[in-house]
Amino acid sequence: MAIDGCGLVCKYILIIFNIIFAVVGFAFLGLGLWLRFSGSTRGIFEIDQLSSSTFVIGVTVLIVLGSVMLFVVAFGDYGACNEKKCALQVFSVLIFFLAIAEIVVGALAYSNSHEVGRRLGEFYVSLYTIYVNSQDPAIGVTLTFIHNSLHCCGMTGVSLIELVKQTCPKPDGFMEHIVMSNCPLTIVNVFESRAPLVMGIFVGTGALLTVAMICSGVLSSQIRRLSSSPQYIILSTNTPSLAAPQLYPQPYPQHVTNSINSFPDQDPVVFTPLPTINLPLAQA
After folding, report:
1. Whole-model pTM?
2. What is the pLDDT of residues 148-172, one digit of tens each?
3. What are the start-end ranges of the E strands in the chain?
4. Is residue 20 a contact partner of residue 209, using CB atoms and an 8 Å limit?
5. Residues 6+ apart with CB under 8 A from 22
6. Rg (CA), the chain
7. Alpha-carbon span 156 to 102, nearest angstrom
8. How far does CA 89 lie from the centroid of its chain?
9. What are the CA-CA distances from residue 98 to residues 49, 103, 165, 214, 231 (Å)?
10. 22-31, 84-93, 106-115, 178-187: which range is least confident on average?
């Protein structure tokens, strides 16, 4: 189905958006599944007393969020690439709810910044403890990412006694060779001091989801318009599949002449040629 203009632009925007969304969704789901079923962390989920811990809740959120993102991507990519109106409509509804959830979560995180920061600090402490006991490489990569993003080092920040200093970033000055900011306190302070920025990230993500929803609606409306408009085949005298009408009587074959001569009192039947018409095609 040939679409053009805004529909074509929206189609490629949706494809790029869904590719990025799929990469993030796979990352969240992969990390969550690793933390859930890794030999060093599986035991945490088997202890009833820890079922409400920050670590268990965080891993569950990663798995659920990654799964939902991939579910949304499946409808978005299928609808955009194959120009399927129903898939795009389902994608728009899912994106609408995700955008609302992003804005609500951002507002709640902003209003409860201290509590959210404390919970994230507890999640870091759980990762730190598990890595010290198991030396799990996946958790080590996660700690390295956190340390480099926040420029902090472990639970103490003191390089001489820190147990995970191999995952810490390079010191910026002479004093940081001795002591660096510890991560639990840094996480709480960063989240409290940058709560407006965090809310802006959530709201910005919601705005991007809204743009994707608008593009999906534009593409869906163009597909609906093209599918509802009738299409024709124009038949003319130059169409090779049609024989040109006979304007003058032609000599009859011998067997027809004999048949006519056998009934001399009966007038011959002459068929008038049909005019050229336009035939509508059946909609695909």
Report:
1. 0.63
2. 888 888 888 887 888 888 888 888 8
3. 232-234, 278-280
4. no
5. 69, 70, 73, 77
6. 35
7. 34
8. 14
9. 32, 9, 38, 14, 39
10. 106-115
